[in-house]
Predict the structure.
Amino acid sequence: MTVTTFKLQRRGKSTTYDLRDVLASNPKWITDLNFSAGELDFDLFQSGHPIIPYTGDIIKFRWDHHKIFYGYVFKYQIKENNIVSVTCYDKERYLKNQDSIVWQAGTVADRFNNVCKRAGIKHKVVDAPTHKVAAEICDGKTYFDMLKSAITKTQTATKHMYYVYCNYDTVELRKAPYKKLKMIIGSKSAMTGFSYAVDINNVANVVKVIQKDVKKSQSKSATAKQKQANGKSQKTTSAKAKTSQKDEASRTSFKSVSVKGDSTKQWGKLQVTVNKKNKANHAQMIKQAKDELRKRNRANKELTIDCIGNVDLVAGNAVTIKINDINKTLKNCPILKAEHEFGTDYMCHLTMKVGAEWLQETS
């Protein structure tokens, strides 16, 4: 296996350069489910006939004839020893553009098609959800944020996760997992290292839903005044603030409902509060607390794997992991982030989510 295509093309021109002979490092390719553009990093030699990549230039990369990356130079850095380091992003990068849009009720696919057209990027809906999310006003947000909002609401309602992925030169809306790979990565096959971490730093096993009540003031607050040397009166700000705070405190009360998970016996009480949804009654507040507890009352388990490279090991796919050291076999384990380093020893570093669900909280 080897680099079969590595070309630079001046944007808007037909001029192209073959970079294979001037590559000074193994190309590194990163895909990430956390609403991030695909990234390609590499170094070039600048001796003999130097090729300086300009920002905006097109980079096309194929590995063993597989289409891997089509994107644009966003950064280059000239270093000592005639080396230029280059960072490129694929077309998803243009979903970081900001805009203000009033969204009518519609599906994730509707929103995806709209923002891709606005960003001017080639796109395709591979998997289209039928669930419609409510109307929403997005003011000064990125297209990624707008998609994330709709994807999260769709996942909550349907238990299905959708994500955005750049398939070479086409940005796609896919349903996870896109592929359930038949291969097994394990202690005796392909895996060269691993790390398994469990933490409860962001866990909550008690959720309290708060309703704040503020009664209308029945009397005007007193205002202290003092005479200035010129005879004019001036409000004493500190005195007024203290009186106002006292008045507000006397008129404010909180009502709440709370739910508790069994994990308090193991972890102790880890409580969070959330404001009740607008116009929610008591039963709806309890349901809100239970829904929130279901999302928060679980340890975060993260598995990272170093293994022999494969072009299908990308974010959004799933693969079976078998680790003898911790006596675990994880079927269809979600790949949240994948880092590929191409070279004589083609290797991958994978960040996995342990558990059956495809969770949106990937950061």
User: Anything to note?
Assistant: The domain at 97-175 is CATH 3.55.50.30 (Phage tail protein beta-alpha-beta fold). The chain has four domains: 3-90, 97-175, 180-200+299-353, 206-218+236-296.
